[in-house]
């Protein structure tokens, strides 16, 4: 017996150094997010400071003209900021009401079977690459606006607003639906028990209780719109002007992200123009960081208000409005409606203003004079109609791309090389390049992300350091993709000397997908009951043995889901690789990690914007890219659905 004890102690002493090494390894993985966001800030600021010093920070931020190519170059951000704000505001005018209506429908009105169909459909809408949205907007939306409004060009604030609104919908729907579903059931049951209708319960109890989550959804939607690059380049006209008048939604504009995407590839490295573009990136980064920090703050308030004890009072206090706001609340929808009508009148869109006025009048009359049950039927019909419109938008986008592109997706197209500037030939090098970029980024991101999640969940409790790591992860997740591309260009391509290469693209995409891997792995690890860990420790297992043999096996489905979602995002991104890894035409496959590659998103972008007469190959390339991303997201959805049906621990 004594010899057995000595043997056990000897094994413990052997395992102790291994445990310490593993602990240090996971800690290093966990701080990768902090290192990433720190390096992005440092290198962007390093290249932006010369512009701030030469131009002056205040003139740079307040200048009303951006014209680097003039005899006397002008570097004023006001036209770019105004363009960004206009398309973002227009996107929210469209996305917020439709997103909230869809969230209400999915959470409160849809049957379980329909909910299982609609939620994946919304996720599919989120998974469509931005370059595919931009291609659809350029080919269909812009021409439709040009014909319908009888204007010289459909590339405008309005086109950008509609397209960004569609792209922001999945974020607003998903987060709002989660917030609505998380409202305690006793609030809904209590309202119904007091005689309220379902609609009165939704509008006066559930929505006020979920207001923090809905607000966070809108803020995240704004961040999604502000950080978009490829789609706005393709549909907004890219004129660095302030619309005259300001509310002219048919005027072309240029956004902050669009400026970076258009001009960075042609600028001389080290010139004032080069440093000014990095100044634009710094301003964009701080705007998005501010938006994401605000969203995180709101979400933390929401999460804290959903806890037990006295914090339940937070939900109840939002359900019942303060006395001084009770009278004001009823005028808020009317005020917003009047502002929208005034905006449309000033923009010269009399038909739209009349339509909105008619809708507002009917809404007021319905709420004022009809019986409660009739009011409920009308509102439910409106919500169902809006859900139907969003679903039809998704179906129309998919139908247009597949009906026009599928006939040209032939074996020769899939296995051939591009010819005649992409008008003929195939896209095999682009398929291989996309595969290599995605595979390399996931190979790097998975161990880093899983290790970081293991450290946050298994090796430390909630403290100041873990809060910093999670905040850095969230900020990294909210960083615009074009900023990742600029960081990769200045750090990997120039500073480290990788050049435009496969390895530079892999590392850039790794930084972009790392937060997704960390978050999904964290959720998977937290779903394992603590009782299993305690039982393992009671049997004498070390922490790492417990993690490896008890915690990780049941967490594999969640980890795989996170990996697949990361693959889908990496496969559909254009901005992070356009300055770091890709070229448009390359007939041979890369021989090493230092060679450039072709990629499907970038190939589609160049075909759509720079190669006339390539319509068939444009659609065919969009089909291949869309099928690839749909398959990836479909696998993730099926894995989640499969394990959701199983009995939870």
UniProtKB/TrEMBL annotation:
It is a multi-pass membrane protein. Residues 81-295, 431-636 form the ABC transmembrane type-1 domain. InterPro entries: MetI-like (IPR000515), MetI-like_sf (IPR035906), Phosphate_PstA (IPR005672), Phosphate_PstC (IPR011864). GO terms for cellular component: plasma membrane. The chain crosses the membrane at residues 21-46, 77-110, 122-145, 157-175, 205-226, 274-298, 338-366, 378-399, 427-457, 482-514, 593-613, 619-639. GO terms for molecular function: phosphate transmembrane transporter activity. Keywords: Cell membrane, Membrane, Transmembrane, Transmembrane helix, Transport. It is found in: Cell membrane. Its main location: membrane. Signal peptide: none annotated. GO terms for biological process: phosphate ion transmembrane transport. NCBIfam families: 3a0107s02c, phosphate_pstC. Belongs to the binding-protein-dependent transport system permease family. CysTW subfamily. This is Phosphate ABC transporter permease. It comes from Methanospirillum stamsii.
């Amino acid at each position: 017996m004594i010899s057995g004890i000595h043997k056990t102690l000897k094994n413990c002493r052997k395992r102790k150094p291994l445990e310490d090494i593993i602990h240090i390894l996971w800690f290093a993985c966990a701080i990768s997010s902090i290192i990433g966001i720190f390096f992005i800030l440092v290198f962007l600021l390093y290249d932006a400071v010369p512009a701030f010093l030469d131009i002056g920070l205040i003139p740079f931020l307040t200048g009303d003209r951006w014209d680097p190519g003039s005899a006397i170059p002008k570097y004023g951000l006001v036209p770019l900021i105004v363009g960004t704000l206009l398309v973002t505001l227009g996107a929210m005018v469209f996305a917020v009401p439709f997103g909230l209506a869809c969230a209400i429908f999915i959470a409160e009105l849809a049957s379980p079977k329909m909910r299982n169909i609609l939620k994946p459909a919304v996720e599919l809408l989120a998974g469509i690459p931005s370059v595919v949205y931009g291609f659809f907007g350029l080919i269909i939306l812009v021409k439709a606006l040009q014909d319908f409004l009888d204007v010289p060009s459909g590339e405008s604030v309005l086109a950008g607003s509609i397209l960004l609104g569609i792209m922001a919908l999945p974020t607003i729907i998903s987060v709002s639906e989660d917030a609505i579903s998380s409202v305690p059931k006793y609030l809904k049951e209590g309202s119904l028990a007091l005689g309220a209708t379902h609609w009165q319960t939704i509008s006066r109890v559930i929505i006020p209780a979920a207001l923090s989550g809905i607000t966070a959804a809108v803020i995240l939607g704004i961040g999604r719109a502000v950080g978009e690059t490829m789609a706005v380049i393709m549909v907004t006209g890219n004129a660095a002007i302030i619309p005259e008048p300001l509310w002219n939604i048919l005027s072309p504009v240029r956004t902050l992200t669009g400026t970076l995407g258009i001009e960075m590839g042609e600028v001389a490295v080290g010139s004032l123009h080069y440093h000014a573009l990095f100044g634009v990136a710094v301003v964009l980064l701080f705007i998005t960081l501010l938006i994401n920090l605000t969203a995180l703050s709101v979400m933390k308030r929401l999460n804290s208000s959903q806890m037990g004890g006295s914090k339940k009072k937070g939900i109840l206090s939002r359900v019942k409005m303060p006395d001084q706001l009770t009278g004001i609340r009823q005028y808020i929808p009317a005020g917003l409606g009047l502002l929208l009508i005034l905006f449309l009148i000033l923009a010269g869109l009399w038909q739209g203003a009349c339509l909105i006025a008619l809708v507002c009048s009917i809404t007021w009359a319905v709420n004022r004079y009809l019986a409660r049950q009739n009011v409920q039927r009308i509102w439910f019909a409106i919500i169902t109609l809006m859900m139907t419109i969003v679903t039809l938008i998704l179906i129309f986008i998919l139908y247009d791309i597949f009906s026009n592109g599928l006939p040209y997706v032939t074996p020769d197209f899939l296995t051939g090389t591009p010819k005649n500037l992409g008008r003929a030939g195939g896209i095999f090098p682009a398929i291989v390049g996309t595969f290599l970029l995605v595979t390399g980024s996931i190979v790097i991101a998975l161990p880093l992300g899983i290790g970081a999640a293991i450290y946050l969940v298994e090796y430390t409790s909630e403290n100041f350091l873990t809060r910093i790591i999670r905040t850095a992860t969230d900020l990294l997740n909210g960083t615009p993709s074009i900023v990742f591309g600029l960081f990769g260009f200045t750090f990997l391509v120039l500073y480290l000397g990788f050049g435009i290469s496969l390895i530079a693209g892999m590392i850039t995409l790794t930084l972009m997908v790392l937060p997704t891997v960390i978050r999904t792995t964290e959720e998977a690890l937290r779903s394992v009951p603590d009782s299993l860990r305690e039982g393992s420790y009671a049997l004498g297992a070390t922490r790492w043995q417990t993690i490896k043999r008890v915690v990780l096996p049941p967490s594999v489905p969640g980890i795989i889901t996170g990996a697949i979602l990361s693959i889908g995002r990496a496969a559909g991104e254009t901005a992070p690789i356009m300055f770091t890894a890709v070229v448009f035409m390359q007939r041979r496959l890369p021989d090493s990690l230092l060679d450039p590659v072709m990629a499907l998103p970038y190939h589609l972008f160049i075909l759509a914007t720079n190669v006339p007469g390539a319509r068939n190959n444009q659609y065919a390339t969009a089909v291949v890219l869309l099928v690839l991303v749909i398959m990836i997201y479909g696998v993730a959805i099926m894995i989640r659905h499969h394990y959701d049906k199983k009995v939870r621990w």
